Amino acid sequence: MNKCKRCNVWVADDTMVCPLCHTILTENKPMEQSLDHNANKMQGVQRPGYPDVKKNTRRFRKAGRILLFISLAVEMLLAFINYLTFDAAPKYWSVVTGGIIAYLILTLWDIFSRRQGHIRKIYTQIFVILGLLVLIDYSLDWKGWSLEFGLPCIIYGLVLAIIICMSVNSSSWQNYLLMQLAAIALSIVDVVLHFKGYFHHIVLAWIALGLSVLLWSGTMLIGDRKAKNELKRKLHI
To answer: Which of 25, 46, 137, 198 could connect to 146 by a Cys-Cys bridge, CB 3.0–4.6 Å?
Structure first.
């Protein structure tokens, strides 16, 4: 059992970091623990303690493994049904259900996981949703709608998410400059695909590119030197 001298609490498990203030814990010998406990007992002071901080983590991981097992079992059953009804249209509908199940699991993991920041979670959602749309499009006899219409809509969502995050975290607005560049890069890819002749509706792509460039330009102009310095630091220029 270790003690945090800053919070004056005892941690029941073998972790070396305080779950409250994230300070390195002090390893106490059994004699020191006994003396401290007896002193507090004589003074009528109840020693503050903190429960096993890994208990909830173990429960979360166990629940995640159970959910993963159930999801795999359901997908195997759906794949078997798809095999029995393969002549029906669409032929590969079990691939779509598998992608949806995988997306739901990743989304739940992102919601309950505390190791990843919200920026990384936004990136994960963007690429997972895009991959899911492409998978559905491919499974339903490729028409290209996942990139022609889906990609611009994802860029719109990314721009909106950046604006919301910058409004909520106004003191750390410069942390979202790279996300703005990512939105511009995705928009350029969308426009290039249209110029290559893969798609025909180019209006959505141009709107996505215009919104991305407008947001980035406004941030750079308003942020001025602070935005430029942050961009240089992020890009190691």
So the answer is: 137
Tell me the C-alpha distance between 128 and 179, whole Å. 16
Q: Dig out the tokens for 87 from the structure.
A: 């002549």
Domains in the chain: boundaries: 2-50, 54-115, 140-237
Is the whole model's pTM more than 0.90, yes or no? no
Long-range contacts of 62-69 (CB under 8 A, 24+ apart): 64/109, 67/105, 67/108, 68/105
Kind and range of the H or E element at 128?
Answer: helix 118-139
Residue 180 is predicted with a pLDDT of 92
- Signed CA dihedral, 98, 104, 106, 109: sign only: negative
**Residue pair 177/230 in contact by the 8 Å Cβ criterion:** yes
Output the CA angle 60-66-69, nearest 5 degrees. 140
Q: What digits encode the pLDDT tens for the residues 151-188? A: 999 999 999 999 999 898 888 888 888 899 999 999 99
Q: What's the angle, vertex CA 166, arms to CA 165 and CA 170, rounded to 5?
A: 120
Q: Which of 182, 187, 107, 181 is nearest to 147 (CA)?
A: 187
What residues contact residue 89 under an 8 Å CB cut-off, 6+ apart?
none
CB environment 17-46: b (16+ within 10 A), e (fewer)? ebbeeeeebeebeeeeeeeeeeeeeeeeee
Contact 31, 70 (CB under 8 A): no
